[in-house]
Amino acid sequence: MSDTAQPDTNLFATLNATRRWSISILIIVASVFTLYTGATGPFESPVQRGFFILVLLPLVFLHTPSKLFKDPTTEIISSITLSLLTLVTMTWSLINFERLYSDPFIDPIDIFFGLLGLVLIIEAVRRTVGMAITLILVGFLIFAYFGEYIPWRMLRHGGLDLETIASTIFYGTDGVFGTPVGVTATFIVMIMILGAFLTATGTSELFMNVAKSLAGRYTGGSAKIAVVGSALMGMITGATVANVATTGTVTIPMMKKAGYDPRFAGAVEALASSGGQLMPPIMGAAAFVMIDYLNISYGTLVTHAIVPAILFFFSVLMIVHVRSVKEGFKPIPADEIPNPWLELKKRGHMLFPIVLLVTLLSMRYGIMYVAFFSVVSAMIVCQLRAETRLNLMGYYRAFEAAMLGLIPLVAITAGAGILIGVLSATGLNLKITFLIEYIAQGSLLITLFLTMVACIILGMGLPTVAAYVVLATLVPGSLISLGISPIAAHLFIFYFAILSAITPPVCTGAYVAAGIAKADPVQTGMAAIRLGLVVFLLPFAFVIEPSLIMIGSLSDSAIYIPASVVGIVFWAYGLEGYYTKLLSPPVRAGLILAGVMLIWPNLWSSLAGLIIGGVILTPLFLQNRKRRHA
After folding, report:
1. Helices 392-426 and 10-40: crossing angle, nearest 10°?
2. Where are the alpha helices (DSSP H) in 364-427?
3. Cα 87 off chain centre by
4. Domain boundaries, given as residue ranges, for the chain
5. Contacts of 469 (CB under 8 A, 6+ apart)
6. Nearest to 111 by CA among 100, 102, 120, 121
7. pLDDT in tens, 529-584
8. Which residues have CB under 8 Å from 60's CB, separation 6+?
9. What burial letters (b/e) apply to 507-518, b meaning 16+ CB within 10 Å?
């Protein structure tokens, strides 16, 4: 809630002071609780998750306006009232958790607080994410209650009474207090604190300056800085919207100043920022959820994820490069390129917490334990140089940024718990899996396509963590039943959970980028899809040919990875319609076809694509060489 000028009344001044003090107290309590459990280990799941929601959900109401009241005094009274109701509801759940989790029968007062808790979570989702997801949650609860009246037989069920809704969807570990809140309340909150300290100490500036020094001196430097910077920033933001908001404020104006179309500038930033969650060594927060789901080591996940992530960013860089050459965009001026060694000298020590995190994770220590020590190391090493040194208020501001950054995530992961609870209690998750399998009739390609559509639709408007958790509950089974490895199936839905952030109509990453670029959000989203079409093809390729994610034969990896690289090059030339000169439509179509054939993991297809692309480009290459010699 904004602290801008308000009516000068004693009541409002008192209420606003109460709100600010309450926010500060909740931030301090949440930070102390997180550090304590990071050092000693989490409490029992109901206690850890319940206390986390008890402390952080009131922040949603205290910090995010409802936009329902014009009178600011009424607004602040409603926010304080809802935060108090949240404290009472979650305290009741904590006090009675042993009885609520052991006794299948609950009292009327338990039902009252359970239903009140669901209402509060839905309102928190409305404030933070918007009406679209809110209506979906309400629709799911209506579906749960009136299941016996649904006309379509396949979706019909016996209906859940209010007692079952309260006990299963609110109190149950498959509902609000389920996996989404669980992973947020343990290691994601620690990762957020680490990212906040790295940001507070200027590490984000270090990454951007390193990106400038690496990419700024080349053709289309400003756009390439956006791609490289977003890949680096993904390590400390872990979310598409946060990445766009952080790097986009620097890179989008830089691209517009260089002459790029605002929609293109916003699209490049949105696409690159979404990919920041794919790039090891840290990846996004959802990757840590995947580790928990699959029960694999961090090193194993990085091994499987590294090649698709590199191909993702290579494809974006290639398209940016070809567009820049075609439009005649230059490198950024030499006097604007920082010296990377000076930047590392000033802030390079802040990379130590990242190195420590990666090292300890590679040694298979627990994620929460590792994240805690990384946070502590960041709090210590920031004092080594004046450029990164924090005073007491600086430490508080870092914790404040982390906890306020968690506000939408807490609301939506609790909301995702409602979705998962309804899906599980009504059997809808099994029915969706069955429906996909029934339509696909054993066809892997159709199953993958339907899974992609489900991922994009269900992931729209959700943070990647929540989108991945919901999708991981629904769709991997249909892929695994066809013999796909679990890691390939989960990486597939992970990719499309991320790409849903740039897919209209609810393209949250594109909306933020468009706001910075002052462009139309839907057009920016469509431009991002055009730039990322080849990225939409990559998950299909690595599911069909697991050697692209380093599963199976190394000889296959040695064939298909270089083939994909060449295919991306052909694709970029064809998509942008330029290679030493403007290309005719038939030539563009031939290059795009050659690119798809090379990326598609089949030996004969790849050879045919190489021949087609070579036949098209070789004469153009020789003409250009002859022209240069002349």
Report:
1. 80
2. 367-381, 392-426
3. 29
4. 10-180, 202-338+427-552, 559-630
5. 179, 180, 183, 286, 289, 413, 416, 420
6. 100
7. 888 888 888 999 999 999 999 998 888 999 999 999 999 999 999 999 988 888 89
8. 124, 127, 128, 407, 410, 411
9. bbbbbbbbbbbe
Confidence (pTM): 0.82
Q: Which residue in the block uniquely carries the two structure tokens 């791609």?
A: 227
- Distance (Å, whole) CA 409 – CA 368: 18
67-106 pLDDT tens trace: 888 888 899 999 999 999 999 999 999 998 888 877 667 8
The secondary structure of residue 166, as a DSSP letter, is I
As given in the structure block, the two tokens for residue 628 are 């240069």
Estimate the crossing angle of helix 285-294 against helix 464-474, to 10 degrees. 30
CA dist., res. 252 & res. 205, Å (int)? 15
The Cα-based distances of 82 to 57, 58, 124, 464 in angstroms read 10, 7, 10, 27
State the amino acid at position 104 in one-letter form: P
Looking at this protein, which amino acid is placed at residue 205?
E
Question: Do residues 429 and 239 make contact, with C-beta atoms less than 8 angstroms apart?
Answer: no
Record the tokens describing residue 303, joined without a space.
């091994």
Distance CA 275, CA 501 (A): 10
Long-range contacts of 103-112 (CB under 8 A, 24+ apart): 104/167, 105/163, 106/163, 106/166, 106/167, 106/171, 110/166, 110/167, 110/171, 111/162, 111/163, 111/166
503, 460 contact by CB (below 8 A): yes
Dihedrals phi, psi of 605, to nearest 5 degrees: -65, -45
Q: Is residue 181 within 8 Å of 124, Cβ to Cβ?
A: no
Q: What is the sign, positive or negative, of the torsion defined by CA atoms of 477, 482, 484, 489?
A: negative
